[in-house]
Amino acid sequence: MRLSGLQKEVLSLYRQCLRECRKKPDTARQHFKSFARNEFDKNMGIEKRDFAAVEFLLRKGRRQLEMYSSPGVKNIH
Amino acid sequence: MRPAATRLAAAPRIQSSFVAAPKSLVFQALRCYSSAGGLEKTEVYERIKQILTGFDKVTDPTKITETSHFANDLGLDSLDTVEVVMAIEEEFSVEIPDKDADTIHSIDKAVEYITSQPGAN
């Protein structure tokens, strides 16, 4: 399946999220992974051609990732 | 061997055929170091198969073959595929850059990529 540039950006953001999860303590890693996956799943229904919506969510996601990447955030529930 | 070694120690600059023995030993040691080599295709496949068998999103593990496509055969979506590729990354201790990761959609592609990576282990 050919992916659009925007779709690749979404996958890239998910990949970054998973990479950040690796830096979290072993016991909490799975929580972070599930959380990230859940955040993406929430918007699974967005039409892929709704560029404005996808771009908005990408920005929102990146901000969220930045927040959760802080070493101070050690677990998530 | 022994007299050669002691003589060598006593006179390090000696130019005799005795020198050949320790020299070739050193050479062999170096060769062993670099001969780690790439991974076998079958081994890579078996390890990837293990990853996929343990992945709960794969509904039918009997469909895992050398050429399975993540989406078409195993029923994974694009996010699952990202997870699989990341798991493969961890398993073989390599970092797969985005542009390469985007091209890995099937087991044979993954095997091909890993066997082409000199750092994979």
TrEMBL record, chain A:
GO terms for biological process: mitochondrial respiratory chain complex II assembly. It is found in: Mitochondrion matrix. InterPro entries: Complex1_LYR_dom, Complex1_LYR_SDHAF1_LYRM8. Pfam families: Complex1_LYR (PF05347). One of its GO terms (cellular component) is mitochondrial matrix. The keyword Disulfide bond does not apply. Keywords: Chaperone, Mitochondrion. Residues 8-67 form the Complex 1 LYR protein domain. The keyword Mitochondrion applies. Its main location: mitochondrion. PANTHER family: LYR MOTIF-CONTAINING PROTEIN 2, SUCCINATE DEHYDROGENASE ASSEMBLY FACTOR 1, MITOCHONDRIAL. Belongs to the complex I LYR family. SDHAF1 subfamily. This is Complex 1 protein-domain-containing protein.
TrEMBL record, chain B:
It is found in: Mitochondrion. InterPro entries: ACP, ACP-like_sf, PP-bd_ACP, Ppantetheine_attach_site. The keyword Transport applies. Signal peptide: none annotated. Carrier of the growing fatty acid chain in fatty acid biosynthesis. SUPFAM superfamilies: ACP-like. It comes from the Eukaryota. Gene3D superfamilies: ACP-like. Keywords: Electron transport, Fatty acid biosynthesis, Fatty acid metabolism, Lipid biosynthesis, Lipid metabolism, Mitochondrion, Phosphopantetheine, Phosphoprotein, Transit peptide, Transport. This is Acyl carrier protein. PANTHER family: ACYL CARRIER PROTEIN (PTHR20863), ACYL CARRIER PROTEIN, MITOCHONDRIAL (PTHR20863:SF28). GO terms for molecular function: acyl binding; acyl carrier activity.
